[in-house]
Amino acid sequence: MFNKRTKIKELLAGEPTGQQVTVMGWVRTFRNNQFIALNDGSTLNNLQIVVELGLLDEATLKRITTGAALKITGELIPSLGKGQKMEIKAAVIEVLGDSDSEQYPLQPKKHSLEFLREIAHLRFRTNTFSAIFRIRHALAFAIHRFFNEKGFVYLHTPIITSSDAEGAGEMFQVTTLPLAQLPKSAEGGIDFSQDFFGKSTNLTVSGQLEGELAATALGDIYTFGPTFRAENSNTTRHLAEFWMIEPEMAFYDLQDNMDLAEEFIQYLIRYVMEHNAADLSFLDTRQKEEEKALPQAQRSELGLLDKLQFVLDNRFERITYSEAIEVLLQSPAYKKKKFKYEVKWGIDLQSEHERYLVEKHYKKPVIVTDYPKDIKAFYMRQNDDGKTVAAMDILAPGIGEIVGGSQREERLDKLETRMQEMHVPLKEMQWYLDTRRFGTVPHAGFGLGFERMVLFVTGMSNIRDVIPFARTPKNCEF
Amino acid sequence: MFNKRTKIKELLAGEPTGQQVTVMGWVRTFRNNQFIALNDGSTLNNLQIVVELGLLDEATLKRITTGAALKITGELIPSLGKGQKMEIKAAVIEVLGDSDSEQYPLQPKKHSLEFLREIAHLRFRTNTFSAIFRIRHALAFAIHRFFNEKGFVYLHTPIITSSDAEGAGEMFQVTTLPLAQLPKSAEGGIDFSQDFFGKSTNLTVSGQLEGELAATALGDIYTFGPTFRAENSNTTRHLAEFWMIEPEMAFYDLQDNMDLAEEFIQYLIRYVMEHNAADLSFLDTRQKEEEKALPQAQRSELGLLDKLQFVLDNRFERITYSEAIEVLLQSPAYKKKKFKYEVKWGIDLQSEHERYLVEKHYKKPVIVTDYPKDIKAFYMRQNDDGKTVAAMDILAPGIGEIVGGSQREERLDKLETRMQEMHVPLKEMQWYLDTRRFGTVPHAGFGLGFERMVLFVTGMSNIRDVIPFARTPKNCEF
């Protein structure tokens, strides 16, 4: 048994009483041939190791370089130095793995996020990224805990699908056919009957439709899985592969849906503030440092921690789409012709419009409801006005749309008519329609883009920095 | 706000004191125009609704059919009838959704699992499948809770990858190239530079290698995500798309790894026994009923609940591969030539061998360690004997391999040599080798096939019955 170590997080949470402990981790810095700052990934904080004169020979001292892995046994004692409560007085130091400082890409200095993206396999070893990925973990766990406490069932919806009912954009094709020699059908097309699944298949863009099948039996369910968009969008907000959470609830209307989504987001933020204080505080400081270089106007109005606290302390603003259009039309920005895109009832809100509403006008998260039916999906419940559907999008400061949801159309006749109007193939969707055919119920749900939530909570600005290994156009490394 | 209901699970856990409650759910049965058995998916147990004479007109009574959705308000009172502690004396009954009993595929009778697989979109509405999917949820939550309690970081490793380093079998290709008109390169091959990622890409078979990158910085991590095998295996144990949990731990050797895996499996079983007693008990009875039709010899030695308790009460047997071969060679089965496949040192253990060890010889889960290096992956740590590697597989009764893991080769020179011997491309794997180049540490990990674990815990026999929508050769419905 090798792993008789104590994690640094645990040690730092306790008291130094001279007890003998063993720690293992990686050297962050080594000062004056005497003070090792050791990090083991369990916390942002390093543990100071004191190497007394004569403990190690010259050759071993030289091997204690940034990035080297050490196993250290010694007494945990109160530290006399500044900046730490405790330190280990090393009795035995074993070098587990060397790190040639000439070659090691991570030097004890500031590296750009761009550079670290290139060496994503090593960036976990930095303060910034270890904080981000511990927060990402905490958010994921909080998501499961939230739904579990409420009696939701976690549902794994399929990744490979044969339907494109959502019509949510371009999809990745999945095939085992030999591309160099594709079998042809009698009609001259590709003979997908020879493909693995006997038909053409894609990567899923959403688990919602399958989620509805389970919700109309188990009551409340949620998905949390990868989804895909083959869109050629090289922005700081888009990934080709990202994780999404999609709860779906039987017996919910639009208001129930909004209430749940708001409670959910606040729960997640509260959880991370309680469990990841050190990481958040580090990122809060980091953001302030980064923004020092920017002109005042481009700096965040609130620091990261203040922003999160603000979201906890304030109810989200709830407005209808029609009200949103009215606000935009009355805005100074509109009157001064500062919007690039047209504003009128019927448009899909553009990023500049969403940002105006959230960041300038309401200055907090906004839930926009009742969108025109023509810019929304076929499954959204039609309102009595004949023009709008019971949709709701949550817009967050600095991020834009973070949640998209709706009450679903539970009335079979209205759903079928809408599907016909929108050219959704009814025949292939009989399984979906069965939920309306047999014991249909009012139900609703929403999707939360996980990486956008991580962006929001970490205050990072590029979505590639909050997922371990980003997949974007022309980029599929590691 | 529509959803002012109480879940049946909650009601049944409390006391009936005549309080007014609202429930919503689906009719399972309606007896004598008087007793509705209502299920809302929150629990296996139905709630009895008493419809007093005269409450509903004839037309409404006729709409209360199996599968119909109801909203019921009334007093929750102690039940005088047998079989239930409480019931609702209905004051208002609203039919939310009808279910035409002529058309509804789920009749109040026993349906075969094969039939229910065909209507997987409706099988959530049966006792068996609602129990299975609640248990699946509980297992998933227990997995996250186990690792979170131990300070592991949940890592989302990529689904789309450009490497096939694992060599774990045939892979699904992912592309956005137009299949009908594939672009050609100057050499006449397919021009993948025009593909979405600018290169040929596949669906992942494992997140382990990426997991190692994070573990050698954050310490302990785990993945829990979908993985894929494009193998044409039409068995009761294989899926083309399945979920896998892959923990990876820095500073672990093989023994640490085994200890963790054993503790993990026992934790999961204990969690489900504590949280899903009704579901497990139903499946226990179900299995006994099913097996009544079988000859004595084919029945399970232990019932489902007894089997799970047995796994909790007994340490897993730990034997080396060499010992396993010896046991097989000494077995009556071998001497009577009952094995179809050859038994000698160096073979990959076949299912019949694993079953003999687990079900006949040791009669409990067995961890087999130190396999011949030639039948294992390049990254496994080489033992000093020069012949074996520090691998470990956990074999479970009735399932076979449920966990596969190893200590990883942390020594750069030995790893590179082994990769060369096994024709793993070193150049493309520099990112992986960097973990050995800079601060390498002993580390280990394993993979647990989630569906196999669900199979084990539910006692089901076909893996297609423990995942919501199975993907198997020629089968990609819903």
Automatic annotation (TrEMBL), chains A, B:
This is Asparagine--tRNA ligase. Homodimer. The lineage of its organism: Bacteria, Pseudomonadati, Bacteroidota, Chitinophagia, Chitinophagales. Residues 133-468 form the Aminoacyl-transfer RNA synthetases class-II family profile domain. GO terms for molecular function: asparagine-tRNA ligase activity; ATP binding; nucleic acid binding. Gene3D superfamilies: Bira Bifunctional Protein, Domain 2 (3.30.930.10), Nucleic acid-binding proteins (2.40.50.140). Its EC number is 6.1.1.22. Signal peptide: none annotated. Belongs to the class-II aminoacyl-tRNA synthetase family. It comes from the Bacteria. It is found in: Cytoplasm. It catalyses: tRNA(Asn) + L-asparagine + ATP = L-asparaginyl-tRNA(Asn) + AMP + diphosphate + H(+). Keywords: Aminoacyl-tRNA synthetase, ATP-binding, Cytoplasm, Ligase, Nucleotide-binding, Protein biosynthesis. HAMAP family: Asn_tRNA_synth.
